[in-house]
Design brief:
Layout lengths: L13 H40 L4 H25 L10 H22 L2 H13 L5 H24 L10 H74 L1 H30 L3 H14 L3 E6 L8 H18 E12 L3 E10 L4 H4 L2 H12 L3 E7 L2 E9 L7
Parallel strand pairs: 1-2
Antiparallel strand pairs: 2-3, 3-5, 4-5
Length: 400
């Protein structure tokens, strides 16, 4: 039977959020690298085609130097595109002016050298596609630019720009397809960003709903008791002169209601804080996996019978330590039970030089908490492994 993870405290996933942010960054670099590869390959096939028909000594210099400058200038447009969701309204002319001027200049020079209208327009078209267009507008821009490139390819073909026997169709076809390939690559990035933001919004909404539920329960509990106490005190005030004994009885009842309110509040707090150990471990496993670690978990079938008050904070603290100080590659969780003790073990890869931080106040607090219930804490470091082993005696009345 699968477990449904309970709500994880908002302060704990922060280290994991940093891992996710690194994953988003890596995905962006894959996206940007793909676009840059498309452009580099296109420049190569155009250069080979032009050199096959124009052997002037200046051609390699013009195409090579100009192509590299234009190729690097598109990085500025990609950097601007990466933050398109957070971009302010309007057109950031100061950021896009330089790359667009470079694209225009390279297109003019490349068109003159090659004699191709398609080559002359290609840099400007690619830089235009990389601009931060709205979704609907960008699709129409790509369709129009692709149609224009198809027309220019036929114009070049009718003008016999390419020497007979030259595979002219390769740069022509690749140039026509470049806007579609570029936009489809960026579209995947947009989808990933939207999903990541939706996941963050869902987590914030879940936390807000949980707080609202707790606030509602506290309001209902305290409102009931306060209303009863007010009525009892009002009655005691009325009886004070006529029947002091009855008034005293109402005061005692009001004091009892105060005690009931305090006990109810404590019970309510414990109900929200106490999570079965099986769910705690499932939460820890899911949190580590969400942070990008390879997680191996061994949870005893009767894990919910383990002392949650003692081991729950230990699981949360050690999980946080793995996220903050671990190497970020793997982790192993285990909760087993022997005849007289529960054994919790967490093992992860350690960052070299992080020994002092990992053995800081967090684990000292774990040691004190476990010592209070008669348990033991064992911290082991060997090579690239960091292991924490906690044992807690089986409570009276538990049987294996």
């Amino acid at each position: 039977m699968s477990r449904t993870p309970s709500t994880i405290p908002a302060a704990e996933p922060a280290p994991g959020a940093r891992q996710l942010a690194r994953g988003i960054t890596a995905t962006w670099w894959y996206t940007a690298s793909a676009v840059m590869f498309f452009e580099a390959f296109l420049l190569l096939v155009w250069a080979l085609g032009v050199l096959a028909t124009n052997t002037a000594a200046t051609v390699p210099l013009v195409l090579g130097a100009g192509g590299i400058v234009w190729w690097l200038s598109t990085l500025l447009l990609l950097a601007d595109y990466r933050h398109r969701i957070d971009a302010e309204p309007g057109v950031p002319w100061t950021r896009i002016a330089l790359p667009m001027i470079i694209a225009l200049g390279f297109g003019v020079v490349g068109g003159l050298v090659s004699g191709s209208w398609l080559f002359a327009v290609m840099p400007v078209v690619q830089s235009t596609v990389l601009l931060n267009w709205p979704s609907g507008v960008r699709a129409r821009v790509v369709v129009l630019l692709t149609a224009a490139l198809v027309g220019l390819a036929f114009v070049d073909g009718s003008r016999d720009v390419y020497e007979a026997g030259t595979p002219w169709w390769l740069p022509a076809v690749y140039t026509v397809l470049l806007p579609v390939m570029t936009v489809s690559t960026l579209w995947w990035w947009d989808v990933l960003v939207a999903l990541d933001r939706a996941r963050a919004s869902e987590a914030r909404l879940a936390a807000t709903q949980e707080r609202l539920r707790v606030a509602t329960d506290v309001h209902d509990l305290q409102g009931h008791h306060l209303q009863v106490i007010a009525l009892q005190l009002e009655l005691a005030e009325r009886l004070m002169e006529r029947d002091p004994a009855a008034a005293l009885e109402q005061l005692r009842a009001a004091r009892g209601s105060v005690d009931d309110a305090r006990q109810g509040t404590r019970d309510l707090a414990m109900r929200f804080r106490s999570v079965p150990l099986g769910d705690e471990l499932a939460n820890a496993r899911d949190l580590l996996a969400a942070a990008g670690l390879e997680v191996e978990a061994a949870i005893a079938a009767d894990a919910d019978e383990a002392p949650a008050a003692a081991l729950g904070p230990v699981i949360r603290e050690t999980t946080t330590n793995v996220l903050r100080h671990g190497g970020g590659r793997r982790a192993r969780l285990a909760l087993t039970r022997s005849a007289d003790a529960w054994r919790y073990e967490i093992d992860n890869d350690a960052v070299p030089g992080a020994e002092e931080r990992a053995d800081g106040s967090g684990l000292e607090g774990v040691g004190r908490r476990i010592a209070e219930v008669g348990g033991t804490l064992d911290v082991q470091r060997g090579g690239d492994d960091f292991t924490v082993v906690v044992t807690v005696p089986v409570r009276d009345g538990e049987t294996r």
